[in-house]
């Protein structure tokens, strides 16, 4: 990354915490064994895996035995949704999710639809939240599985997971939560929340890329079928040799997060307020999503501005656009369209996402630079001459 | 690392367009299609384009293309407006093929300008 760039894309990925790096290096240097090997070094690797599971279990308030290691949230989502829906298919093939879910969820639901599952896509309210009554109304006698994300990756909207999970329990529906944007960032007590399956990934909370986990609640009827085959690891749910240093890194990231969540949230609330206060009076600017969402994300649109040009004009800010990040299509975000934004509004959307290392000076610069970029593009546009 | 969608010429034309603005008393035309808008203003003396300015709403490639076009035609005789160097623009600015329609809106603006100036 060029030194002069200002990174405001923490919802896409976070830098690895130095304590995590130290732990990964230490583990990689001292143990090269396969954790499945029965010799001493293998048993030592298995103990390192167990330590990491305990660290992650502590963060989520769950028994470490309920955690299955994966390559990241996409795999966890696939395992939970495809594996969970198929496991319960003999009881019913109706499954439910939201229109604003991540592609790692929606694409699996579409795959299941092609397999013969009946999918209901529930709408969000204009602020991005899911009304529990809307969710309850979508459930049927043959509904067996539902998936709702904890924090939306584009807008930061936080869903009422407790209420939605309770509805699932009342209807005996297996409830999966995509927690990729929530774990390590919000306090999550799975000992209390009625959640059956929860996906997470390390690189969203200062851990390494390439490692994630799926929580599978230890309760009757809660299980998934494997989607990968090849070995007996992890109770055959997810075969494959475990990457000891990555798992240890995720465990350390969980430890760091457990000690940092409260101060991180306070820090992010302050930054988000500075950023929003710095741009909210721009004519035609609008905040997308719930103002009380996760404070690390601020998603804004602005009238009469072309999104691709705005993104380039915003350099050296490294932010995300509301488009599909595909220069060939420049399709507006389906998430923002689902909240009722027009194509033009969605196309002008910019997601600022801040993290632990973000400074007040960086967001103050971002606000000034956003104002300047919008003004320049408006001045360049034909209507400015009218 | 994925390739930068904008080459150095696009970045230069987009970041510091020397021909952005209006010309008081000049001939002005507007082309509006493909979800983009291009406005050109020209002044002419002795059968030559003495100054060309633009306003545009669209992607960076479009804005760069309009700046490129203004530089290209300034100082040229009016007859030059009868030809539009679409291939050179596409090549110089490495315009993705799917954005060809937007460049053709620039051509529409140039043709419209030619018609207006020849009246």
Tell me about this structure.
The complex is a heterodimer of chains A (386) and B (119). Chain A is of the alpha/beta class and 386 residues long. Chain A folds into 2 domains: 132 residues, Alpha-Beta Complex (Aspartate Aminotransferase, domain 1), CATH 3.90.1150; 239 residues, Type I PLP-dependent aspartate aminotransferase-like (Major domain) (Aspartate Aminotransferase, domain 2), CATH 3.40.640. Chain A has 11 helices and 13 strands. Chain A is globular, with a radius of gyration of 22 Å. The two termini of chain A are 41 Å apart. Chain B has 119 residues and is of the alpha+beta class. Chain B has one domain: Sufe protein. Chain: A (Alpha-Beta Complex). Chain B is globular and about 50 Å long. The model of chain B has no long low-confidence stretch (mean pLDDT 95). The chains are: A alpha/beta (386), B alpha+beta (119). The interface between A and B is medium-sized, with 17 and 21 residues.
Oligomer kind: heterodimer
CATH superfamily placement of the largest domain in chain A: Type I PLP-dependent aspartate aminotransferase-like (Major domain)
The tally of domains of chain B stands at: 1
Assigned CATH architecture of the largest domain in chain A: 3-Layer(aba) Sandwich
What string gives the helices and strands of chain A in order?
A: EHHEHEHEHEHEEEHEEHEEHHEH
Structural class of chain A: alpha/beta
Radius of gyration of chain B: 14 Å
């Amino acid at each position: 990354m060029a030194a002069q760039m200002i990174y405001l894309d923490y919802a896409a990925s976070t830098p690895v915490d130095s304590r995590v790096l130290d732990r990964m290096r230490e583990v990689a240097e001292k143990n090269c064994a396969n954790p499945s090997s029965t010799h001493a070094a293998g048993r030592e690797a298995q103990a390192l895996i167990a330590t990491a599971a305990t660290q992650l279990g502590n963060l989520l308030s769950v028994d470490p035995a309920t955690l299955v290691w994966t390559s990241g949230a996409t795999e966890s989502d696939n395992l939970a949704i495809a594996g969970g829906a198929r496991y319960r298919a003999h009881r019913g093939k109706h499954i439910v999710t939201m229109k604003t879910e991540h592609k790692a969820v929606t694409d699996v639901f579409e795959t299941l639809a092609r397999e013969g599952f009946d999918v209901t896509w529930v709408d969000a309210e204009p602020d991005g939240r899911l009304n529990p009554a809307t969710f309850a109304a979508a459930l049927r006698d043959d509904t067996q599985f539902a998936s709702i994300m904890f924090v939306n990756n584009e807008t930061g909207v936080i869903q009422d997971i407790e209420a939605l999970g309770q509805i699932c329990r009342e209807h005996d529906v297996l409830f999966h939560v995509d927690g990729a944007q929530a774990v390590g960032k919000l306090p999550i007590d799975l000992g209390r929340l009625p959640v059956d399956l929860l996906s997470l990934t390390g690189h969203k909370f200062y851990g390494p890329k390439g490692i994630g986990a799926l929580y599978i609640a230890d309760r009757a009827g809660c299980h998934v079928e494997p989607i990968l085959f090849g070995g007996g690891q992890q109770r055959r749910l997810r075969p494959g040799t475990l990457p000891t240093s990555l798992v240890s890194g995720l465990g350390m990231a969980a430890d760091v997060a457990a000690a940092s969540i409260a101060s991180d949230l306070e820090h992010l609330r302050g930054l988000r307020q500075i950023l929003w206060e710095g741009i909210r009076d721009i004519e035609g600017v609008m905040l997308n999503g719930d103002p009380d969402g996760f404070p690390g994300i601020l998603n804004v649109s602005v009238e009469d501005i072309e999104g691709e040009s705005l993104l380039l004009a915003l350099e050296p800010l490294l932010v995300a656009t509301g488009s599909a990040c595909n220069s060939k299509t420049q399709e507006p975000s389906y998430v923002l369209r689902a909240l009722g934004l027009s194509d033009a509004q969605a196309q002008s959307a910019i997601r600022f996402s801040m993290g632990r290392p973000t400074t007040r000076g960086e967001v103050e610069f971002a606000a000034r630079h956003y104002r300047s970029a919008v003004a320049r593009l408006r001045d360049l546009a034909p209507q400015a001459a009218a | 690392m994925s390739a930068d969608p904008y080459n150095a010429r696009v970045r230069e034309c987009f970041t510091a367009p020397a021909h952005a603005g209006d010309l008081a008393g000049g001939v002005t035309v507007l082309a509006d299609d493909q979800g983009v808008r291009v406005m050109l203003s020209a002044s002419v003396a002795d059968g030559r384009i003495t100054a060309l300015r633009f306003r545009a709403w669209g992607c960076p490639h479009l804005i760069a293309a309009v700046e490129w076009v203004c530089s290209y035609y300034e100082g040229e005789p009016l007859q030059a407006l009868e030809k539009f160097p679409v291939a050179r623009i596409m090549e110089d600015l490495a315009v993705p093929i799917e954005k060809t329609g937007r460049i053709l809106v620039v051509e529409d603006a140039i043709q419209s300008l030619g018609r207006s100036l020849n009246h």
